[in-house]
Specification:
The complex is a heterodimer of chains A (271) and B (292). With 271 residues, chain A is an alpha/beta fold. Chain A is built from eleven helices and ten strands. A six-stranded mixed sheet of chain A has the order 6-7-8-3-9-10, with helices on both faces. The radius of gyration of chain A is 19 Å and the shape is globular. Classes of the chains: A alpha/beta (271), B mainly alpha (292).
Chain lengths: 271, 292
């Protein structure tokens, strides 16, 4: 069983469609344990530049764990152990000389629940640049405007930059959080179910935004909404019980899944 | 087959309502009793001591003659004591809380330390007095100075400040921490820019309440050997001094009836002092009310 899956993955990765894709992340033989619980099992996954990669799967399948491993946020859980390697731009993120702060400056993250700081909208966006040493007010102003425009929320908040970020709606807060991630000028943006706490209209706005952002960033998005994965992603990985069952072009996964379990999941038979 | 029959519910309804009323009465009585005791105490003290309150009372030193006895030395002494206790206890307390919550590994040793800090908060103050006598007064040879008393009082209220600060830090949502770390902030930047600003109302409220406990404590000062009658003001932290509760204790234990009035006036001053500190705590809490 395992053999055939691996063969499938090789085949799909080896068929370049337009030009040669540059991988940003290469995961090799990744295993992860929470204490005794084996949460990720032998993950092999290559994620390409300027693509949207969706990760789908039922609750508890390890998809959130995986995305949090990509910027090592998973290490906030005390009992976590890992083996194998994840190469980000050809450097192993687990190697001892890789500072986690450096990695997280290149890899931004947007969380499940909008989590702005209890500060003004301006200070929320300027937080990242400030911690990385930018003090010049003019430069900060520029970054704030550029990031808010990038997250398609500039017109909605430009007159209320000094208001508390809690005074705007949940959907706007989530786009503020995306803008805040853009402000550190990342290379990759990780999104952990970014629309699960939002209403349908806000969800649509975030989805459109993801489409625009992939021009400049590589995006990895965890979602439990299969329509969302089908709508916005280029590639989709299906996780089940800590394993990658299938990883392929999104069209292929949804129209012609090669594994029975993938088919069962996307057709709504479980999950 | 229904399990809840309407008729039986109606039959039992009266009994249930009576129980409801009885318990409401019991809780009301408990609250009233506590308030009544407080009002009686305040009434007795105020009627007894208000007559003795005057500017002279605040600006005179203590005296053998009740009508000339004033609280100046004790009031200034208590302020000096606070000037040592507040920075010492808050810096050490908040520092320990940050270490325990943010840096310490979550293992058995840490939880053992946590439990014992909470236990320390329950140790009688006289024990801290003996500790202060041994360490600060004798071993460090600080004598019965403001510094020795201040350090002893700091030890006494340290556990309370640590526990209150830990609670305040723990109540900062984890998502804020993740957001900051996720942008490449270091732990220290996250603590200074995100966690402490969000935790400051809780930390300050807990600290001020702990400080007002230190102002009212008598036992440790008696053990350290703080003198009662002092006819000068301390010029620095190495000088000896006296404090409000000590002064009140001395007056109340004198045989002359008139001194009871003086003691009551002293208590009023102490209570106003405490009320002021607690109001500051309330104002701070309301001003920085959490926004999440």
């Amino acid at each position: 069983m395992t053999m055939t899956i691996k063969a499938d993955k090789k085949k799909s990765a080896a068929t370049p469609e337009q030009g040669i894709k540059v991988p940003v992340y290469q995961t090799k033989e990744l295993n992860l344990w929470y204490g005794e619980k084996h949460a990720l099992k032998n993950i092999d996954l290559d994620i390409n530049e300027n693509e949207v990669t969706a990760i789908i799967g039922p609750s508890g399948c390890g998809k959130s764990t995986y995305i949090k491993t990509l910027n090592r946020m998973v290490e906030l859980v005390p009992s976590v152990k890992t083996s194998g390697e994840i190469l980000y731009r050809d450097r192993n993120i687990f190697s001892s000389d890789y500072q986690v702060e450096e990695l997280r400056t290149r890899v931004g993250m947007v969380f499940q629940k909008p989590n702005p700081f209890p500060k003004s909208i301006y200070d929320n966006i300027a937080y990242g640049p400030r911690i990385h040493g930018i003090k010049n007010k003019k430069i900060l102003d520029e970054i704030v405007e550029k990031s808010l425009r990038g997250a398609a929320i500039w017109d909605e908040v430009k007159d209320r930059l000094n208001e508390n970020a809690y005074s705007i709606s949940g959907g706007q807060q989530q786009r503020i959080c995306i803008a805040r991630a853009l402000a550190i000028e990342p290379d990759v943006i990780l999104m952990d179910e970014p629309t699960s706490a939002l209403d349908p209209i806000s969800t649509l706005k975030v989805e459109e935004l993801v489409q625009e952002l992939k021009e400049d960033y590589s995006i990895i998005i965890v979602t439990h909404n299969m329509q969302q994965a089908a709508r916005i992603s280029d590639k989709t990985a299906f996780f089940l019980n800590g394993e990658v069952i299938e990883f392929d072009e999104t069209d292929a996964i949804f129209s012609n899944p090669s594994d029975k379990r993938t088919e069962d999941y996307i057709s709504g038979r479980f999950g | 087959m229904r399990y809840i029959e309407h008729e039986r519910v109606v039959k039992r309804m009266n009994g249930r309502l009576v129980t409801n009323v009885i318990f409401k009465g019991i809780f009301l009585a408990a609250t009233s009793l506590a308030i009544l005791a407080l009002v009686l105490l305040a009434y007795r003290i105020i009627t007894q001591g208000a007559g003795h309150l005057s500017l002279d009372f605040l600006s005179n030193f203590s005296s053998r003659f009740p009508d000339r006895a004033g609280i100046k030395a004790a009031l200034i002494g208590s302020l000096w004591l606070m000037a040592v206790v507040a920075p010492t206890a808050i810096i050490l307390g908040v520092g320990s809380a940050i270490y325990l919550e943010e840096y310490a590994k979550k293992n058995k040793i840490t939880s053992f330390i946590r439990i014992n800090i909470a236990n320390l908060a329950g140790v009688p103050s006289i024990v801290f007095g003996l500790l202060g006598l041994t360490i600060f007064v004798r071993a460090f040879a600080l004598g019965n100075s403001i510094l020795a008393a201040g350090f002893t009082m700091s030890l006494l209220i340290l556990p309370v400040i640590i526990v209150a600060s830990q609670e305040a830090i723990r109540s900062v949502p984890g998502e804020l921490r993740e957001a900051s770390l996720g942008m490449g902030a270091t732990k220290w930047q996250t603590i200074v820019k995100i966690i402490l600003p969000a935790a400051i109302p809780g930390i300050l409220t807990g600290s001020i309440l702990a400080l007002s406990r230190a102002i009212g404590e008598t036992a440790p000062l008696i053990v350290i050997g703080v003198p009662v009658i002092i006819q000068f003001l301390p010029a620095g932290i190495m000088d000896t001094f006296t404090a409000l509760p000590i002064q009140i204790f001395d007056w109340a234990s004198r045989p002359q009836q008139e001194f009871q009035t003086v003691a009551a006036a002293g208590i009023i001053v102490l209570m106003i002092f405490l009320l002021l500190m607690n109001s500051i705590a309330v104002i701070i809490r309301n001003k920085f009310q959490k926004r999440y």
